[in-house]
Predict the 3D structure of the following.
Amino acid sequence: MLKLDISIPKEGRQRVWWIWIGVLGLLLAVGLFGAIRVLVKGLQVTGLSDQVPWGLWITQDLSSIATGAGAFTFSAIVYLFRIKKYRPIARAAVFVGFLGYSSAMLSLAMDIGRPDRFWHPLVFWNVHSVLWEITWCVILYSTVLILEFLPILFENSYFDRWPKLRVYGGMIHKAAPIFAGIGLGLSLLHQSSLGATYGVLSGRAIWYKPSLPVMFILSAVAGGISMTLLLTVLVSKLTGRQIITEELRSDISRLAGFALLAYLYLKLWDWAATSYYSHSPGATQALALLQTTTPYTRTFWWIEIVIGGILPALILFTDRFRKNDRYLLFALAAIVVGVTVNRWNVTLSGLVAPPHWSPGVLGRIISAPYLPTWNEIIVSLGIIAYALLTFSFGVRYLPIFPRKDEPSH
Amino acid sequence: MIFKKKRPAKQKPAGKKPLVSRKEFLGIAGATGAAALVTQLITTGPLSPEAIKGIGERTHGAEDGKSKHKWSMAIDLSSCIGCQYCVWTCQATNDVPDDDMRWNIGFPEKTETGSDFFMTRPCLHCEEAPCVKVCPVGATWIRADGIVAMDYNRCIGCRYCEVACPYDVRRFNWKPSTAKNNYQPTWGSPEIERRARGVVEKCTFCNQRIDRGIEFGLTPGIDREATPACVNICPVNARVFGDLNDPESPISIFLAENDTFRLREDFGTEPKVHYVRPEKENA
């Protein structure tokens, strides 16, 4: 079967909508409870420790930013390189990007020990820190995303009462190429630096490599394009209206495929150079420890490489599979899952298998365990619920997707 | 009763506007409150120039930001008897009641040839400290005299320094530190304030003792009042402290006379804590 028919019948739509909103609202409320509990009790309610100080929330932060990378990619393609055919998906990409970055900031606000000092990186500079650079880039780029999104927001009928706003919105929209340029620069910087966060640490052999920043940006481009298209296709299928043409859908899928191939190529050589053709005692020791105490090796090969890499690449580059709704949705979701699992694996691998520094031998076989607590999980689910809720309302009340070829109701 | 009396007043005659409507009142009250809050924040609160300047200042163990000293420590694993006094006195002196938060840790170890020894590890105060490089707010820095210092008022608790440190030196305040310190007064009295929830802390080479000692003309490493507590208490003198820039300092003499190594030199962190192997060759 080529076409997937999951469109919700018109008469039942209102009910399905309210159930969906209700479930998300409930998740959001539970997440809010979790967030308040974290603020009141501090980070002792997490499963984190001094040996594994980063976990689920940092993974969520990294994944949200990675899957929000569609915004800078499509903004650059459409407004900077002026490849007009991708224009119908540019707004969705900006919206998804905004949701990704705001989710990331929410999870970071939960993760830092002193959220009341969130402004410190702006006032107290340490230019030698990649995290300082990331903080600046993320704040600036979020501002760009908000500016890019404002004109879309102003088109809602609620803003009829302030016609001036639309004039400003139009002015912002005219400056789209400038924002696209700034956004491209900022994104290339911080998407890579997020990999460098781990890549520059000489004390942890499994992380210490120059390939990490590049793998982070390539996987972010693949994941960002996939997330944007995945949501677009899903909305199109659920509402039963064609949002983008078959041809554009096919082109964007191939674009995601090319980014994925570039990522896989680098990943292949990263693995070959560090683990196959050479021997680094630190990395070998850490990998052996991970293999015996965690599912790292299995999740790396099966989820990151096979399910999140090779399989989607095959689907996206085979005409017959790419044009099949089910296969396409699977491939896009698999890429997003692969990138997310990658961020988890990268973060946890260096921490769970700590470097051995004692001149003795007893500590060599000890790994540091980490499992997120229920409090961490409900906060994470709450943040995902926030993103999905905002996305749903955006799709319903804002002109995120072009409507001109929409069949009349 | 009061409600009953008030109620009729609410029913305003139609068409007659009150002096200030409820909406306006709420707006004015809200704006006044917000203005007061902002004013408080930027005049005497945490965003005031003084507060920010206070966080912005860094100590260097010297007034002009330069120092003629370079503090360093040596630990002789071959003479250590594993009494753990150094661990406990550190907890008392720096007021660390929680055993999981020890700045100076000690544990039983085994050499490759199978003989037992006791391993202890303070902060190594690396010259190329990864924790200092990664801090996004510069809350930790290398003082001119070589000590890796921390500003607990500037730290945002992101824990990147913990991730970066390969020696497991740093400790995060996961919960408020309210427990009674059972190591006091037996092993010493607290010399510094406890740290707040949500910030990272670490061994400071007891810089409070060093800085105060120098003010009084003492020599850290020789005069006990100016020397780290862990060095003072060791019953077998397994820890040696002093100034690398002074050839007469105990540390300089010790390093010249002993064969020492540093932990994982391959990390390129250039630690300032030196060790003597647990088993001496030809022993």
